[in-house]
Amino acid sequence: MSTSTPPPAGDSDPRANSLIDSFAAHLPQVFASFIDHFKGPVAIKDRDGRFVYVNEALARLLGHPRSAIVGKTDYDFVSKEQADAFRRNDLESTAAADMHLLEYFTDEDGLQHIYRSHKFGIASEQGEWIGNAVIAEEVTALEQAQLTIAEQKARIEGILNSSSESIWSVNRNFDIEFANDIMRRDFLQAFGIDLLPGVNILAALPAVLRPAWQQRYEQVFAGEMLDFQERVDTNDSTFFLRLRFYPIRVGSTVVAMAGFSKNVTAEVLTMKERNRFYELVEQQNGALKSMARNHTHGMMPHLQQIMAAIAQLRQAQSGHGMPGIEAALTNIEAAAEAIGTLVKHNMERVKMVEAGTPPTK
């Protein structure tokens, strides 16, 4: 068996030189054929964003022959918004030297295409930037659906994370599927565990709390909706939560639950203080009623004593006709009437206090 000996290092292979020379004579055609075999768009642009070369796939996408595209920019074929994005990405790829990203293109029929683009800068032999190149591949329908789902999920999570309430979801295995920033922060502060996806919510709770919370989750998995207030005691503090649990259904099957929680400690404490104030007011009203009754009842013996004295004086007058008694009787009667009026007034005040109406002066 014969073997060929490679040429010594530094020597050129005549056959290789001949092959290179033959290709060099047809290099433009070789380059064009190579680039046109890419299924996705390929383009070379100069420093000002003008197309220097485009492959057939990009020409079809833009809806123009290549000869009508060369020398023009993205602004001649797409909306200003899209062209601004393409130009911005071109310049960023120059600074980064190499860049992979998703780009969006809307065709003349209004259909949106998503491309996974590889962009990079082109430099001269002297190292000077002279332009950019892009090689793009259209994302498949399946990949596009996955991207759409990922984008929608990101938007929803952004909305949920902007909420002032704690929001989370748990699957039927009691594993966290999602917890927003507020929920993760508060749970971490209370129990020292970050509720990342996959964390078992029951295992994350102190053992003493698990039975009650497991029962609540199971009620929701059975299709119930819960709305309740909970007092939570930790080593550092006590706080109150208003919670709402909802089942998440796929068709008629409950596959998970969604929880919403709001810290209502301030409201609960305010309500307790308000109730305490009402208790104090009621106590004061009771004291006022008691005082009014005692005051009125205390005057009654004096009034009765005066009336008895009047009777005795009248008896003395009728028997002996003592001078000055008539005048005394008149004064005593006037005083008795005054006291009677005062008693009547006080009784009216008692009734007003008992009815909850402030007495007038």
Write the layout of secondary structure elements.
Blueprint: H1 14-24, H2 27-36, E1 42-46, E2 51-54, H3 56-62, H4 66-69, H5 80-96, E3 98-106, E4 112-123, E5 129-138, H6 141-161, E6 166-171, E7 176-179, H7 181-191, H8 201-204, H9 210-221, E8 226-233, E9 238-250, E10 253-263, H10 265-320, H11 325-354
Antiparallel strand pairs: 1-2, 1-5, 3-4, 4-5, 6-7, 6-10, 8-9, 9-10
What does this structure look like?
The chain has helices at residues 14-24, 27-36, 56-62, 66-69, 80-96, 141-161, 181-191, 201-204, 210-221, 265-320, 325-354; strands spanning 42-46, 51-54, 98-106, 112-123, 129-138, 166-171, 176-179, 226-233, 238-250, 253-263. The mean pLDDT is 79. The protein is 51% helix and 23% strand. Helix 10 (265-320) packs antiparallel against helix 11. The chain is of the alpha+beta class and 361 residues long. The protein contains eleven helices and ten strands. The strands form two sheets. It has a five-stranded antiparallel sheet with strand order 2-1-5-4-3. The protein has a five-stranded antiparallel sheet with strand order 7-6-10-9-8, with helices on both faces. The protein has three domains: 27-139, PAS domain (Beta-Lactamase); 161-263, Beta-Lactamase; 277-354.
Determine the structural class based on helices, strands and strand pairing: alpha+beta
Overall pLDDT level: 79
CATH architecture of the largest domain: 2-Layer Sandwich
Major sheet size, sense and barrel closure: 5 strands, antiparallel
Beta-strand percent range:
15-25%
The unreliable regions are: none
Enumerate how many helices there are, as a single number: 11
Q: What is the count of β-strands? A: 10
CATH fold name of the largest domain, please? Beta-Lactamase
Q: Structurally, how many domains make up the residues?
A: 3
CATH C-level category of the largest domain: Alpha Beta
Report helical residue fraction: 40-55%
Evaluate the radius of gyration: 47 Å
Oligomeric organization of the protein chains: single chain
Give the overall silhouette: elongated
Distance between the termini: 133 Å
Order of helices and strands: HHEEHHHEEEHEEHHHEEEHH
The strand order across the widest sheet is: 2-1-5-4-3
- The CATH homologous superfamily of the largest domain is named PAS domain
